[in-house]
Each structure stands twice: as C-alpha cells, then as structure tokens.
Amino acid sequence: MSFSATEAAFEGFRIVRRNPLAILFWGLAYVIFFVAFFALVGGQMATIIAQAEALQGGEPDIADLQALGASYATLLGFALPMGLIVGAVLSAGVARGVLFPSQKAFGYLRLGGDELRVMAVNIILGIVMGVGSFVVFMVVAFATGLVAQGNQGAGVLTGVLLGLGALVLLCWLAIRLSLAVPITVAEKRITPFASFAVTRGKVLPILGMAVIAFIMSMLVSLLGTIISLPVMMMTGGGLEQLAPMDGMSTAQIIQAAGPGLLAWGVVQAIFSALQLAVIYAPFSAAYRDIKGLPHEG
Asked: What is the pLDDT, as a whole number, of residue 177?
C-alpha cells in the first residue's frame, strides 16, 4: 500500500474502531499513573498550585519564584522517570496496534523488550532535539548580536529571519526522526536514526499528516473539556481544588477530595488516551505504508 498522508492521519480512529477496548486499557494506564504520582507528590502538587495562585495576585519577588522553582524541581524528579516509563508503554502499544493489530490483548499494551527499546529511543531523541535546539538558537543569538552591533534594525530583522529558519530546521529534524518509535517496535532494535532513510522524500507529506492529526487532537481535547466541565462542577473542580489544601498530607487530601479528583482523572484519562491514538498512530501507519508492510487483521 502506498503512503497517503490523509489516510494515515486518521489511523488513530481506525484503531479505536477495530478495538474499542484499547481506549479503556490506555485510559486505565493513565489513571494508574495519576494515582501513583499523586500518592507520591499529592501534597507537593497542592503547594505548587497554591504558590502559583498567590503569584497571580501581585508582583512576585525572587524568593517567591525560587520557592515555586524548587517545588517544580521536586515534582519533576518524580514525573520524569514515571513519564518515561508510561510514555514508552503507551507509545509502543499504539505502534503495536497499527503494525501488529492481531496482538490486541490488554489493548496492545505490554511491558517487555519493545518498551525498554522505545524508552531508550525516546531518551536519545530527547537529547538530540534538546542539544540541537540549544545549538541552533545559540547560533541565532550570536549572529543576531553580531549584526545588531552595526545596525539595530538589521539585527532585529536578522533575529526574526534566523529564528524562523531555526524553527523550520528543527521541524525538519523532528519529521526526519518521527518514525523512530514504529521502526523500533517493528524491527525489535534500537535504531533512532533509521527514520532518516524511511522519511527520505516524504517530509512534506508527513508534515501534512502531522498537521491533520494535530487538528484532530485539538478537537478531541475540546470535546474532552466540554464533557469534563459538568464533572468538575459536580465534584468541586479539577486540580485547582488543591490550592486551599496546601500544607495537608497526601492522605488528608485524598480523604477530603479523593472522589472528585478520581472522577476528574478518569475523564481526563479517557480523552488523553484518545488523543494518544490520534497523535501517535499516524506515524506508525506512515511507516507501515512506506515500507509496504502487510495489514494484519
């Protein structure tokens, strides 16, 4: 089958149609992540929300910003490793759902070699994109400053043009690396840069596919917001209700707001799972169609 950007862009909805239970399993994975994360840092989350709301009420000073930064650092210390694990499991599951649709047990989710390889690839790609962004924008800043020394207006124009060029370059790099996860799941090996060969000559179609998938994801997010509003009204709100609970332990917060937080978390998890399919599945479909792999099931 030849690659069609418009066909691949809607692959996430096809997964849901083929195996509706997959959304429930993916949503359950999000709920488990949320519950485990909240059990570890629920009190810290309440503190961060209270600090952020306090900063909105006036002119923040350095001490306030430092306190908020320290709280965020603590939160990230738990969120990053847990997010890497959950992200690897879910993204591998979505790829499996496209590439090996007959393996539908547990919503295509597993915890094994594929997930470890995907985690390694995600870490490598994160480092590549992070370092690449830093280097590119350092070059932009240096060139802009150099030109601005002679002419301020020319420096501004140079900064704008080079900044746009930097964004285009990083977008191009992201597209060239975008099939790394499906390649990893399909070929059972860590090859983050094999995506370059597969995406050769396909940058614009893959970009178009990604734009369509992003728009669909935003529509799903909007639908989720509309549906979650009544739930938030009935249960006292989402995470914002944690602000008055600053200083309470996680156990006390769960006792006071547990049911409401769980209801909000379940709704968010279901729509996050649907967004996951809408965003990630098209890239696996693109790899399948470019490589000419057979459609199982």
From this structure: 96
The letter for the amino acid at 53 is: E
pLDDT per residue as tens digits for the range 77-87: 888 888 899 99
Q: At what angle do helices 250-291 and 11-18 cross, to 10 degrees?
A: 110
AA identity, residue 114: D
Dig out the tokens for 24 from the structure.
Answer: 């429930």
Contact 104, 22 (CB under 8 A): yes
pTM, two decimals, is 0.84
